[in-house]
Design goal:
By secondary structure, the protein is of the alpha/beta class. 31% of the residues lie in helices and 28% in strands. Helix 6 packs parallel to helix 7. The N and C termini lie far apart (44 Å). Bound molecules: zinc ion (ZN) (2 copies). The site of one zinc ion (ZN) has 6 residues, from helix 6. Its cofactor is Zn(2+).
Length: 176
């Protein structure tokens, strides 16, 4: 292999850290959604987290998901419609666990890589956590506009990565 080929096949940093986030997500025991998040300062990995029940408490595999139903306004074929959605509320979201298990000082000016676009609550907490940038892969349309407005007003870089393929067997279908 030539040097050029070596460089081309070497993972860029976005891919490298998003791959780690997807590997971390495989630890999740909520079968509805496997989410992973990592905290990166410069090029240094400072924390990893996934969505899960509090430690020592029965998780979704043991006790089943804790489902709540809610209605969301969605545009279907150009018409706005109320759609019933189910959500598991047993787990602490990956981003929230990341904040619980990292230090404020480590987070100042850092980047969070997360497999899924943060929900409103996570985005709100991340906005107050010291981080400077959020990179996500899978979109999460609920409250997306509110989240983007919040990020703009906080000056947090909020971006997705294009043409990214998660590592094999790490990405499971998301039930939303
Ligand atoms: Zn669950
Ligand atoms: Zn969340």
């Amino acid at each position: 292999m030539t040097q050029a080929n070596n460089d081309a096949s070497r993972k860029d940093w976005d891919t490298y850290f998003m791959d780690i986030a997807y590997m971390v997500a495989t630890r999740s025991r909520c079968n509805r959604r496997h989410v992973g998040a990592v905290l990166v300062q410069g090029k240094k990995l400072l924390g990893t987290a996934y969505n899960g029940a509090p430690m020592g408490v029965e998780d979704c595999l043991e006790a089943g998901c804790m489902i709540v139903e809610e209605y969301a306004l969605e545009t279907v074929d150009g018409a706005e419609k109320m759609v019933k959605k189910e959500r598991c509320i047993r787990t602490i979201h990956a981003e929230q666990n990341l904040l619980l298990f990292t230090d404020r000082n480590d987070r100042e000016g850092s980047t969070v890589y997360v497999t899924d676009q943060p929900c409103w609550t996570c985005a709100n907490m991340l906005a107050n956590s010291g981080i400077r940038e959020i990179v996500f892969h899978r979109p999460y349309p609920k409250d997306s506009e509110k989240v983007e407005t919040l990020m703009r007003s906080k000056g947090i870089i909020f971006r997705t990565i294009d043409q990214y393929e998660p590592p094999a067997k790490t990405s499971r279908a998301v039930i939303s």
